[in-house]
Amino acid sequence: MALLEIENLHTYYGHVHALKGISLTVNEGEIVTLIGANGAGKTTTLRTISGLLRPREGRIVFQGEELNNVPAHEIVYRGISQAPEGRAVFTTLTTNENLSMGAYSLGGDKEAIEENRRRVFKLFPRLEERKNQIAGTLSGGEQQMLAIGRALMARPKLLMLDEPSLGLAPMLVKAIFQTIREINEQGVTILLVEQNARAALKLADKGYVLETGNIVLEGTAEELMGDERVRKAYLGER
Amino acid sequence: MRQRLARITIVDLVVWGIGLAILAVAVWGVIATVTARAAAVDGYAVRQADIAQASQEKPVRLAVVGALKLGDMPDVRVKKGVAVRVAAGARLPRGANVVVPLEDTDKASSARRGSSSSEEVLIYRAVPRGENMGPIYGKEDWISFFIFGLAQGGVYALIALGYTMVYGVLFMINFTHGEVFMSGTYIASYVANAFARSGFMDEQPIIALLIVFAVAMTVSTCVAVVLERVAYRPLRKAPRLVPLITAIGASFFLQYAFARLFGSGMKRYPDVKALSGSWQIGELKILHIHVIVFVAAVLMMIGLYWFVQRTKTGKAIRAVAEDKDVAALMGIDVDRAIVTTFAVGAALAGAAGVLFALYNKQVTHTMGFMPGIKAFTAAVLGGIGNIPGAMFGGLFLGIFETIGPTLFFDGLGVPSPSQLKDVIAFTMLVVILIFRPTGIMGEVLTEKKA
After folding, report:
1. Which H or E run contains B192?
2. Looking at the partner chain, which of B316, B326, B331 has a beta carbon nearest the beta carbon of A88?
3. Which residues of B touch A90 (CB under 8 A)?
4. Which site among A220, B139, B231, B381 is 20 to 30 Å from B246 CA-CA?
5. CATH class as words, domain B139-449
6. Residues forming beta bridges with residue B103, ordered by sequence position
7. Does B322 sit within 8 Å of A90, measured CB to CB?
């Protein structure tokens, strides 16, 4: 069953036509990846789904409900969380405060918040060691863990990850992707935006290739990995 | 090295020159003030060498060349063979190194000589050098300046928090904040006066004052919330200069609206008997009201700090200040967080206004201007956008502008230096903006916005 369905999405930055009619489907329990070069429109797609940008045309349907006119701060209440690009943690808040902000949508449900916090600490034990540290002083990898952990605090049905591998050492990328799989196995559907196509396709069930605001290719991860164009353009093969 | 020198421009030299000149004047002024002496008793300021031989039997005769009252600036010099009549507390003229008390002197009739019409004095005692003179400002004076400065600074700090918090979330200087401060206080003054007339203020001062505070804070908050909705929110995506202009416009609107609605004269603020009175510690007199204002301001600052650091809403405001988009992703209603910031800042300003009125005893429709712009200076001093910075900046400015004028200008012979407190405050603003635009606690700010 389709958890998220996007039809013919058009988004503009001022006069720049950033998304030119994108359609994609994310089914419950899947890991779906959106790969493409810089400026292809990957982040724009996530920002449009999150309500930070308004589509000029098209439909975003989540669990049968249209999200087009839902304000950004209400999207998370519907079950969509995002770990934004560039591990945008709140650098002046502590690790714990960042996680609490992630659970903002849970309101005063202290029990649920603490349980989520325990789950996050289980996934990322490093965060527990650093729980009272100001987030700005964490390492890049720890900040990425925090960004993902913070998104998980809201207990989302759909977790959107924007370039979790950006600027991280290969070892760390591997660890983070391993954790993403764990999160998925716990029943969270994942929409993963990546420039690191190889790692992303290895993890994903399904993929979409985005080029200058259009989806040029879609298929299962195996199909894409086998595709000549993908191999040349994104996997660096000749 | 040569390259580095080459980069120093004429403008830099002028700027540093002005900076050094200000520093030099300040140092000179402080030395002059600290070394200046005043007469401890009524008498004659003389040179000790002239009266060393004086005795009951053989008095010394000196020509009186002038008289100095309390607060006069000496325009004469004590030279050989000359005395200057001084009142107790009067500043001593240059050259004098002792004051002979009146009882050890006698007026000599100058008519005796016929030729001279000038006054003369007979000195009957060889008073030792340095006797009967002391610093113009004693320890007690500086302490009482300091305590008044704390009260004033507490008020500035409360107002400055509003500037700094709004700047933190919107990167905008809310120049209407002074009028927000005024509106609450102004409306609350009617309540305060009514309570004073009915006697309620004297019977139940705590309840009465709490109501006055509540009214002021509520009115200020309402004004700020409406302002945000009408004048700022529609312009949130506009260039940053635009809301600045509407802020100044709204500020004039409020001032003239109050002048038209309530009259442009000064309104008395009632005396609260429970808060009047003073403690006397030796020479030192401490007014209750100054201590109460300071303590109330500190309590409110602690409350605010707790709100921002510990409560969920406070954390949401900090999150919004750092990144509005990411805050929205967390489910934080950014518009609501911004309105809350305005409301909290305004409530503090309203409370600050009541405190301000309690010791200034009057309100006018323009009362917000000066404290507003001073608090802005304080916020810049502490590092705009930084909450502890605003608290520190406010207190520092309050103390600096209370002590500073006397400390820097009194010794330079400036009459009534306390009128120069605004000059001092704004000179400090210019100096900070030139030499350290991020303010004293600005480092935190740069890290935060990076």
Report:
1. helix B177-198
2. B326
3. 318-319, 322-323, 326
4. B381
5. mainly alpha
6. none
7. yes
